[in-house]
Write the structure tokens for this entry.
Amino acid sequence: MSLLINVLPLIVVVVLLFKKKHMLLAGFAGGVLAIIIGGLEFSAATKMFVDGIANMLGITVPIIYAASAAMVSKAGSIESLVELSRRALKGKISILAGILVLIQGFATYMAGMGAGNTMVTAPLVAAAVGAVPEVVAAMAIITAVGFTTSPASTETILSANSAGVDVMVHASNMMIYTIVFYILAAALAVYGVYKRGTLIKKDTKAQDSYSSKSNGALLKQSIPAIALLVMVVGGGKLNALIGFNLFSPATAVIITSVLTVILSPLNVDETCESLIDGSRFILTTLFAVGIFLSFINMIGELGTFQQIASIAGSVPESIILPVAIIIAFLIAIPSGAFTAGVLTLILPTLSALGLSSQAMGFVAIATGLGTQISPVQINVAALAKGFEADIIDIIKMNLKYVIGALVLLIIIAVVAV
């Protein structure tokens, strides 16, 4: 009975979201109901509200990369790079889509985080092929798998610790599954573009201006975008190669800005304004997500998520892992802003049951997949920004492919463990 009562606020949130009500209204309704049920003090609720916003606005790396990507886009650097790629691939844009999705996956795996990389790669993909649903979903899936199996991520550390193994051993155990999902995501992107063609918002005059330029002129104008992409994807490797940390989000934005002034049509003032303008969408989104997350945290004070997670320990042993995977996926949808936070609710129960490293990894991947259809996940917001779509539209594009990936994950888990 306690679970049925405590889950009511969460049900209210989910129902309102599915009815396409604003996420802040859904969060507020659930939060107020949680306060009434749990008797949460007003001062504590107020603190949660302020802390939720502060936590989200403290996520600085996606903000920096979003502003930088918007700046190089305004400078025409991304369009120039895409036009060069079209010429190099002789019009085989579907192959380019697959390559860009893999670049997103490699960047996520190396960095242990996805949204910051998405801020850079999504505009490239959008300029190349447009908002093709399969490509958007492939970006989401490869990102989710990347940051939940990367040895550099908090999610992987939590999974390894719960399984009682070294982080690198756990990452090695999950490598084959990471490769499988990466290949499938790239193939999905290629198939989507091959099937639908490109869905670029036509701007004939702009396209003609780039198609009429020489390769040399395009290369020059594309250098800021290339530099930003290299620093985002390979900054860690470059730092290891030279022996000190030269490449960071701070230096990336500075170097990219200087290159934009030197190599693009934008002057210093225009470059600065473009950088500032580029941060507005992500800052607005983070503010809204912070408010929503504060209400979800109020629901969490009831113990709702822990009670749902404990269900995995009460089912027959033969289906513990599939049930845990589904629970992790479902919990991640309303509370998917912090994947690691969801895992702290699920993994302790599985750890007590003595499940293997791979089992923990599958639950982590399921959680990551669930976040990709969450209205409060920063990577979903990054995709919305990059593809110039609403967050709800991105979720709709992701939904059936993410669920398909979840079904495949369950099948692999049942066979492998």
